[in-house]
Amino acid sequence: MKTPEQRSADPATIEMLTKTACEGIQLAWDRQEAMEPQCGFGQLGICCRICKMGPCRIDPFGEGATEGICGATADIIAARNLARMIAGGASAHSDHGRDIAHTLLMATEAEHCDYQVKDPAKLNALAKELGVKADGRSQREVAHDVAEIAFGQFGQQHGEVIFAARAPADQRRRWREAGVMPRGVDREVVEIMHRTHMGVDNDPVNIMLQGVRAALADGWGGSMIATELSDVLFRTPQWVRSRANLGILDPAAVNIIVHGHEPTLSEMIVAASQDEDLLALAKSKGANGINLGGICCTANEILMRHGIPLAGNFLQQELAVATGVVDAMVVDVQCIFPALGKLTQKFHTKFISTSPKAKFPYAQHIEFQESKALEIAKKIVRTAVENFPNRKTPPRVPKDSSPLVAGFTAENIFTMLGGRYRPSYRPLNDAIISGRLRGVAGVVGCNNPRLRHDYGHLAMAKELLANDVLVAVTGCSAVADAKGGLLCPEAAEKYAGRGLREICEAVGIPPVLHLGSCVDISRILVVLSNVVAEGGLGESIADLPVAGAAPEWMSEKAVSIGFYVIASGVYTVLGESLPIQGAAKLTEFLCGGIEKMFGGKFAFEPDPVKAARLMIDHIDAKRAALHLGGPMYEVPYAPRMAEEAVAAAV
Amino acid sequence: MAKMIVVNEQRCLGCKTCVLECAMAHSDAKTLIEALNAASPPQPRVHVEPAGQFGIPIQCRHCEDAPCVMVCPTEAIHRPAEHSPVLIDPQRCIGCKFCLLVCPFGVIDLTRDGKATVKCDLCIERIQAGEQPACVAGCPTKALEFCEVDDWLRRRRRATAEKVAAAGDKAARIASEADNER
């Protein structure tokens, strides 16, 4: 068995793992070890269960079966499986986006609604972009038209997904030429499922191109709609201070964890937790208040809009329950362990499921309806408050929590570099051109018990910072960096190279910028498009000295993200390989040939420091291609010879 | 001549097909679905244990001078004939677990009810019918082989000989290059 220190790099997690070890509590890490050795066919992507002539699998050593019963090769099988992962991931993000669009639509149609447009400025900006007439019309009418257009994107059958127009012209040209410009969100997912049905598309590259199209419909469609309309409904985030890690749980207060993804629920829980009657009820039960904490992306949503602290990331969901002080674990959709059901039985914690789409063993189901949002949220909070006296185990809350600054967006983040009086991306572009900033990296994605928890995120970010690469984070990566102290301005002094430190100190920003939840990776796409539009750094995202990574990814959503990011022109390093290594030609395409089409490609590297250096090599190669000099100051990982870097890029 | 199960650990992908095949072969039903629904579900005699990047299928090695046979007080564990697999007679087993203690490989298991012991019997019925053990037959990457000990040894010796020959070639080449330089 691995030691707590081998399982995680996070002090609060190590403390909880040590405390729970002797009690026979089974956690994801234990279940992962029990699963070892994990099936190699699955890892290599060469097991096919699509039709019932099978299951089929290819012997990667060539002694046994070299093709499936239908004749599908390893490349065909792996491509079909991977495309279906994209379909799953794009569906999850897009269904989230659809729910937000539906809520906005409802807010504009219902007589009374707990949701209202909280950000009229963002609404007007969107209305202008989408060609909705705003002059002389009520906010409700404008919001209705915006919501209808967004809602329509999901079922759109032809044309182009509307936010794709935000991408640089050169990137759009690449998509059209490759025939992957997404027509509508749902259509592209359905087409994946059709093409990967037995006996349809049997060209691995052609299958992957449809995967790219669905992924783009996620990044520039479903996810972007989720981000934009969440901003309209719940306010565009602003810089906010808060704290992160299990130490934010307060043994003396009613603790409610919201875990999952959609802000429609968590926003209302925030409102209900501030309700006078419920606070009074909490007091009457002996609690000193109602303390809210988040896990996974819904945590990021309410952090950046309300400063609600982060309780932890994906692999800490069970540990939060094991503290014994969580009175309710409230969940909606995505990344929620079914194991929470059995675990909460050992504690007093109420496990409350809320989505009609996601029910769990041993959970109490209180169905959330947007039409009665606040009422139901109050009922959920009341359930938690009433559960406070039932605590049965002595509290064991780790002391760790780190300060953080979050809430950066495409609107506020880089304009900030220019100061309030001349908001513009110019200073960012100039910083890159001068070499004070070597480049920008997006580090995103999950935790994975196959890898040491949080270590990949932290080690990668630190290596990038030391080499003057500005880091943008979302999702569980953002939570990892928050806990590791990288999201506060003081981190610049400790971890950043000289050039990056000068920028952070001049502007007062942390060297790692929290851009929100996983659907908010769409914000990164907008930032990159704005940088291209600002000028001086090439014609498309593919020209920029930027790179992406998901050092601890595990979910299908991460696969979809990976694909829309590489198809948007960004070189992306994954900590876990995609399940394609048993398919040589497919691997060669996704880690090589695809770059010619879109400007981005995948690389796989489990060592986060080596992975960061691959990203830096790529950034240097892009700088060289733009005829920019090297970093302004000396850096620990010096650029390789320019020609060598360019050769590596080609 | 004696045959043994050989594990080519570089080939094992850890899919655990051998585990399923073994359990099925030792069920009354002999099909997966029926075995799953059987009143007493069948028990595999092979385990795939993780070791670094590899999975290693491990089952009874049928030791020639088997400690389990020696220690068994009721002669439940026995070798019916020379070169035959070591077998367990469940009717005689009293569940004392001494065999578990003395087995150097940890491949003797308790039955599900904990009252007797169970281990690989080299699929003796299948072998007598001219088939291979179920784990070997089921392995999709041929990581498991059932072969004559002599055969196996000869193959190992040949592989070694080839390596020696290659090394000799290389040594000669280096020597001649050195001569040329002089």
Characteristics:
heterodimer, A: 650 residues, alpha/beta, Substrate Binding Domain Of Dnak, Chain:A, Domain 2, Rossmann fold, 3 domains, 6-stranded parallel β-sheet, 26 helices, globular, B: 182 residues, alpha+beta, Alpha-Beta Plaits, two-stranded antiparallel ribbon, 7 helices, 37% helix, elongated
Quick overview of this protein structure:
Chain A is α/β, with parallel strands linked by helices. Chain A has 26 helices and 16 strands. Chain B folds into 3 domains: 8-58 and 129-141, no CATH class; 60-119, Alpha-Beta Plaits (2-Layer Sandwich); 149-182.
Structure description:
The complex is a heterodimer of chains A (650) and B (182). Chain A folds into three domains: 74-234, Up-down Bundle (Substrate Binding Domain Of Dnak, Chain:A, Domain 2), CATH 1.20.1270; 246-390, Rossmann fold (3-Layer(aba) Sandwich), CATH 3.40.50; 410-649, 3-Layer(aba) Sandwich (Rossmann fold). A six-stranded parallel sheet of chain A has the order 6-5-4-7-8-9, sandwiched between helices. Chain A has a six-stranded parallel sheet with strand order 13-12-11-14-15-16, with helices on both faces. The longest helix of chain A is centred in the N-terminal third of the chain and has 36 residues, at 74-109. Chain A has 26 helices and 16 strands. Chain A starts with a helix and ends with a helix. The radius of gyration of chain A is 24 Å and the shape is globular. Chain A has 650 residues and is an alpha/beta fold. By secondary structure, chain B is α+β, with helices and mostly antiparallel strands. Chain B has three domains: 8-58 and 129-141, no CATH class; 60-119, Alpha-Beta Plaits (2-Layer Sandwich), CATH 3.30.70.20; 149-182. In chain B, 37% of the residues lie in helices and 15% in strands. Chain B has seven helices and eight strands, in the order βααββαββαββααβα. Chain B has helices at residues 17-25, 32-37, 67-71, 98-102, 124-128, 134-138, 149-181; strands spanning 3-7, 47-51, 54-58, 77-78, 87-88, 109-110, 117-118, 144-148. A two-stranded antiparallel ribbon of chain B has the order 1-8. In chain B, β4 and β5 form a beta hairpin. The N and C termini of chain B lie far apart (56 Å). Classes of the chains: A alpha/beta (650), B alpha+beta (182).
